[in-house]
Amino acid sequence: MSMMQKIKLVKWFKLTAALLFCCLLFSFGTITDAHALHNTPVSTQGKKKIRSWRDMESEFPGHYYLHGPRNEMKVALSFDDAPDPRFTPQILDILAECGVKATFFVVGHRAEKNPELVERIKQEGHEIGNHSYNHSQFSKLTLDQYRNQILKTNQIIEKIVGYSPRFIRPPYGELLPEQLSWSSKENFVIVNWDVDSEDWKNDPTSEQIMSNIKKTLRPGSIILQHAGGGTGQSLMGTIEALPELIHTLKQDGYQIVLISELINQSATR
Questions:
Q1: First vs last C-alpha separation in the chain
Q2: 63, 126, 131, 226: which one is catalytic?
Q3: What is the 3-class SS of 166-215, one letter each residue?
């Protein structure tokens, strides 16, 4: 091989390596953005703009919450995707044993299939909120579709427990401005969170869940966990972490309260 051929070969290797490095950087950024979407819904879905949570909280005071007051040692436990016969009863058992009340955000079609679990949630003194009919991504729905999701789910819950929930938690935390505007006019309250246990991610261990919670826990925090999972998903990390979480919160001086008490808003309409 001549010297000129060797120089050309070296240049080719350098160019190939640079291209591979750029591709890797792009891929990593894409993955990071996809994971961040769960907690930072500031993007464009088609032509629909998703406002930041902070902007919506400022624009709709009293109708949009991420947390309660920061000057009191109170926190609220919340559980999404209930009811699920695999996990919800175990979570209710632990809460009963520890003497703690929580807020459960219920999916309408699951409530239809498991009304006895929704009734149990109510009977044991917990709050019930609306988490859509079929866990739709609200940012991809029209206003009419969104209204149907909320009203249909509330009708199902009311038939079971005798009251209509006022609290709404959008799946993935996403909501369009016009959906929030309608909710506010209809006297609903949107409740998201400021502490994510990330128990929805890859079946984490109880240790990982505790670590995730401690990262952003503060007075007034609303803690997101799940009482229902998808096909093949395990929430055993959540169940195993819950007694330790309750013990740790109490030991650190926190009072565990319902969301209605934390934000001083009625949970019923």
A1: 83
A2: 226
A3: CEECCHHHCCCHHHHHHHHHCCCEEECCCEECCCCCCCCCHHHHHHHHHH
- Looking at residue 39, its pLDDT comes to 41
At CA 111, angle to CA 106 and CA 117, rounded to 5? 90
The two beta strands, 64-65 and 74-82, are unpaired
CB 137 within 8 A of CB 175: no
Interacting residues of 227 by C-beta distance below 8 A, sequence separation 6+: 79, 80, 81, 82, 83, 84, 87, 88, 91, 104, 235, 238
CB proximity list for 49: less than 8 A, separation 6 or greater: 176, 177
Selected catalytic residue, list 80, 81, 84, 199:
80
Using one digit for the tens of pLDDT, what is the confidence trace for 134-144? 999 999 999 99
pLDDT by residue (tens digit) across 16-32?
555 444 444 434 333 33
Q: What is the mean pLDDT of the segment spanning 127-140?
A: 98
CB atoms within 10 A of CB 80: 22
76: helix, coil or strand?
A: strand
- Whether 226 is catalytic: yes
Task: Return the C-alpha torsion angle 214, 77, 169, 260, nearest 10.
Answer: -130
pLDDT tens digits, 65-75: 999 999 999 99
Q: Are 92 and 212 in contact (CB under 8 A)?
A: no
Instruction: Report the distance separating Cα 232 and Cα 209, nearest Å.
Output: 19
Whether 33 is a known active-site residue: answer no
